[in-house]
Write a structure and sequence with these properties.
single chain; mainly alpha; 7 helices; about 0% strand
Amino acid sequence: MEQPIFSKQKHTILSLLLKMVMFIGAIFCFALGHYMLGFYTLVIIFISSLPMLVGKRFHLQFPTEFEFIAVGFIFATLYLGNIQDFYNRFWWWDKLLHGSSGVILGILGFNLIILVKSCNRTMVLTPFFSTLFAFLFAITLGTIWEIFEFTMDEFFELSMQKSSLEDTMWDLIMDTAGALSMTIFGYNRLIKSESNS
């Protein structure tokens, strides 16, 4: 039988360290006014902490790789985007990160499916349904964020949408593209997992 890359104890320690890094990053995000990233970070921490909260009962553990991806996203947005000014130096940086956020939200959608199936082991969800849920989950949150940006601009005269409709549409397109690529990958993994079981 193949041995896991991380033992349970090492995984727990590494997971806690990554969550600490993400939480500190979230504080900096809100302090600097980057509310979208702060919100995403807190969502990521919450979802990735669910296994710890219910793990004893359901023996649930999300892949460590997901947490590495999340920390990488925060690093790219907070440090490279803001401290190194990549947002202004590279016109495509914001678009890239919106695509990446679609990927991360797609991963969150799949992890929620894992959580639901672990809580109700009699539930049978097809790979197609799991993939559809993850995709819709990702683009729904992306759309809700754009509505939030519009609301903040309208009521508080901010400039979160930048070039208004054009910026909003490109953000939604990149969110959708990232979610689609992630869910196609996840669907293929689910199909392979079922065929090997």
